[in-house]
């Protein structure tokens, strides 16, 4: 059942044909097991991180200056999100727990690829794009960790930027560019916030390329032998929409349990000494 609006859009974009070939009627091996759920879960967590991040950025302030109360502006703004902003605690815990969940999900995704040989031809480019995604994810997480301006944030950023300082010839220069000075300080916080916003948007674009590359070569399967359309494949919808939805249900159950009942998992931020 096409609505009038969708018909209008379809005539001008060919949207229906794209949705059919890339989603509903896209052919997938029929023998995929639950290890193939982690790609769609990674997609879900990426969207959750971007959405919760946008709301956090409405209240967060990247400044190491001091408030009248003697706290830093950055740390204080996070405290305000936790205590004063409506449902700020929920958005922040969703984002912080989501960051860890993102890595768990993506490591499972990569582990599946290693175990079943999904990195082998013809999926080499898909794998290479995946490695780029992983590096950008690590950057995004590292930049985000500095933002609450806690002791762990400060020393984490100090140690990791020191590693760059150990590079021959360009080390000192690179370290100063990363820090925006000689030590981790206010300019570091500003540039990390800027990059922390940029990297996930880059990720979203590259993930688009990752899924496109997958749709050219199609999914591997637990046998490691390529299956051919019509024989051994089934349409993505309803078979894998339902299987992915089940995975999303299991994931959200665990995620919500942690967000609501144990969000800090034994770790929390103490402010940087002034
Ligand atoms: C934000 C992170 C990522 C997202 C959203 C994502 C998304 C997806 C999706 C939706 C699929 C299809 C479903 C599936 O096979 O699970 C897929 C397949 C695949 N991804 Fe990723 N991915 C991410 C990171 C990575 C990384 C880091 C690697 C490797 C270094 C990677 C390598 C692959 C490979 C090889 C396949 C095809 C697997 C097969 O058909 O057996 N991906 N990805």
How would you portray this structure in words?
With 274 residues, this protein is an all-alpha fold. The protein has a domain at 38-226: Cytochrome Bc1 Complex, Chain C (Up-down Bundle). The protein is 68% helix and 2% strand. It has ten helices and two strands. It has helices spanning 4-13, 15-24, 38-57, 73-83, 88-116, 124-146, 151-165, 171-179, 186-217, 236-261; strands spanning 27-29, 233-235. The chain has a two-stranded antiparallel ribbon. Helix 5 packs across helix 10 (236-261). The longest helix has 32 residues, at 186-217. It is globular and about 70 Å long. The mean pLDDT is 95. It binds protoporphyrin IX containing FE. Residues 36, 38-40, 42-43, 46, 106, 109-110, 113, 116, 118-119, 123, 126-127, 130-131, 133-134, 203, 207, 210-211, 214, 219-220 line the site of protoporphyrin IX containing FE. Protoporphyrin IX containing FE binds next to helix 3, helix 5, helix 6 and helix 9.
């Amino acid at each position: 059942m096409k609505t009038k609006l969708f018909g209008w859009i379809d005539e001008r974009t060919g949207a229906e044909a794209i949705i059919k070939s890339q989603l509903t009627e896209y052919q997938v091996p029929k023998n995929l097991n639950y290890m193939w759920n982690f790609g769609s879960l990674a997609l879900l967590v990426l969207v959750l991180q971007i959405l919760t991040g946008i709301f956090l950025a409405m209240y967060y302030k990247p400044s190491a200056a001091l408030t009248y109360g003697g706290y830093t502006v950055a740390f204080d703004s996070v405290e305000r999100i936790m205590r004063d902003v409506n449902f700020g605690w929920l958005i922040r815990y969703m984002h912080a727990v989501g960051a860890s969940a993102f890595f768990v999900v993506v490591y499972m995704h990569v582990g599946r690829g290693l175990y079943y040989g999904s990195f082998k031809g013809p999926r080499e480019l898909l794998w290479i794009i995946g490695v780029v995604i992983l590096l950008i994810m690590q950057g995004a997480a590292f930049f985000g960790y500095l933002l609450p301006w806690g002791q762990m944030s400060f020393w984490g950023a100090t140690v990791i930027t020191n590693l760059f300082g150990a590079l021959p010839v360009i080390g000192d220069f690179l370290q100063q560019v990363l820090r925006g000075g000689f030590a981790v300080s206010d300019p570091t916080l500003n540039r990390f916030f800027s990059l922390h916003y940029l990297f996930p948007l880059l990720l979203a674009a590259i993930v688009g390329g990752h899924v496109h590359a997958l749709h050219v070569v199609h999914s591997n399967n637990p046998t490691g032998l390529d299956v051919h359309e019509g024989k051994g494949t089934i349409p993505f919808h309803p078979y894998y929409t339902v299987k992915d939805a089940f995975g999303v249900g299991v994931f959200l159950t665990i995620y919500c349990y942690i967000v609501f009942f144990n969000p800090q998992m034994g770790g929390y931020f103490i402010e940087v000494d002034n």
